[in-house]
Specification:
Layout (H helix, E strand, L loop, with lengths): L10 E5 L3 H10 L5 E5 L2 H10 L7 E4 L17 H11 L6 E3 L6 H11 L4 E3 L7 H19 L2
Parallel strand pairs: 1-2, 1-3, 3-4, 4-5
């Protein structure tokens, strides 16, 4: 009898330049969730272009990403550039949680993603709680299980 293929792991892509936020999100995650931390927009763009498709169960997106810029080009990139790459390379089945506190750019990016068919949740980090985050993760997990047929 052939071995049953292992299910795709539930993994989230966190695009965030603040180590404190990364630690808090990580502490709220169930132990079986894999989290990949992209610390800058440039790093996120590399991950998105390298791993398109249904590798990621969901994306957590900040907008202002200059704190950990790695290159000169990276300093000019933001969550807007990342959102454009998500639209070009990721399936609209992958939910996105925008946790940016940028009151102008975050809603604009959310609208752009929604217009392309993405399921977007916008909770500014200053309104984020463990309960809200865990509820989002649980909803994403249900969608992921439906997509994967589990």
């Amino acid at each position: 009898m052939p071995a049953r293929p292992s299910p795709m792991p539930f993994r989230l892509l966190l695009i965030e330049d603040n180590a404190g936020r990364e630690q808090e999100f990580r502490s709220w995650l169930p132990p079986d969730v894999l989290l990949r931390w992209a610390q800058s927009a440039g790093t996120a763009l590399g991950v998105i272009r390298r791993d398109p498709g249904h590798i990621w169960s969901g994306v957590l997106l900040d907008h202002d990403l200059a704190e950990r810029a790695r290159t000169t080009e990276d300093t000019s990139l933001s969550g807007t550039d990342v959102a454009l790459a998500l639209m070009a390379h990721f399936s609209v089945d992958i939910p996105i949680l925008i946790h940016s506190t940028n009151q102008v750019q975050a809603p604009r990016v959310a609208r752009q993603l929604e217009e392309k068919g993405f399921w977007v949740t916008h909770i500014p980090y200053y309104h984020m709680t463990e309960q809200k985050f865990v509820a989002w993760v649980e909803a994403v997990r249900e969608l992921w299980d439906d997509i994967k047929g589990e």
